[in-house]
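Two proteins were folded this term; both appear here.
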Amino acid sequence: MSASLPATTSPWLDTPQRFGRITRWLHWGMALLFAWQFVGMGLRLALGRTPLVSFFVGTHASVGLLLLILVLLRGAWGLANRARRPSHGDSLLGRAARLGHAALYLLMFVVPALALVRLYGSGRAFAWFNTVPLFAASPKDEALIAPAALLHGPLAWLLLALVAGHVGMVLLHRWLWRDGVAERMIGRVR
């Protein structure tokens, strides 16, 4: 007669109680990269063209492409783990959380995708982090530039507003409601 061993879970994978290391690394890594993007654009609006601003803005397109790749990886990872992930619940707040996360993912994809379309339409060559050439110089294409130029900035600021709302809800969960929801992504489990 053999005894059943308890199922062990890998700290790398999501569970119904918490997000695994891969999910958390993708989340916090992308949070830092988005912070870099928004700090750079905020400085550009506040200070204009300065060496400090150029330091941030000079990487904007390359970091944006990295974020686009990471959001695709994160989305695929989330779909692969959807049966194991912590639930938002079926309450009104849970449904709002699902809708908010869907909007975040949509904008995290659309905003850098629009910028990449605009960059391609500009006709300028683009080398990712000045090392990996992605496309060569070509004739300017206004049909690609116009919609992307119109939407990229406003949607990026909408994304920032959603991120601020997301952070606000995390703070409510962590400090007011103390329900353990924030710990799922922070990494500590009660």
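Next, the second protein.
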Amino acid sequence: STRSGNFRINPLTMPITLDRKKIDEALPKVAPGLAKYLRIMAFVAKDPRYYDDPDFRRAFNGFYRVRRSAQTWQPQFFALMARAKAQNFDFPRTLFELFAATGRVEASFASKLYATLHPNAPVIDSVVLENLGLKLPSVTDPNRQAKVVGIHAALTKTFADLLATAEGKYLVASFRTAYPKAAVTDEKALDLVLWQIR
């Protein structure tokens, strides 16, 4: 088992086991989300100020289901994306700065911002967390920020561990065969498949 922050993860007790049947069933379902994700990353690749582009923001909001206020929350969020890019924030700093800007510990959105700048980083998503046997601390937990940082570190380690297994290698190879033109990281391929395993 591996320790990350306050979290001990034993891969043997994960609710999900990556098996080839589940991977094969999930792969075709990945296509719509993958197309949206590639659209986001195309902006990132071609425009150094992508975070100011209304089309990028629409694509990001659509893929990541952003329902926060377009008047108050979103301008703060995308301004933070600009600063995080310029200053190369790590995940804990991204989480802290989003809290400073919005007054909320936004585990999922901080990870989505961070993963846009670091495509090999995992996204904190309820479906993926459930599949991996992880749980976010409650919103009232006084140590919520530190625990979210621990969850992100645990998720990063779990992704690396899964990708090193025979099933993880099968997943990546199958993904590359199914979507040969999709330039995504192995971690993103895993993330997209895990999201489809319900």
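Residues 144-163 form the longest helix (20 residues). The two ends are 25 Å apart (CA to CA). These notes refer to the second protein only.
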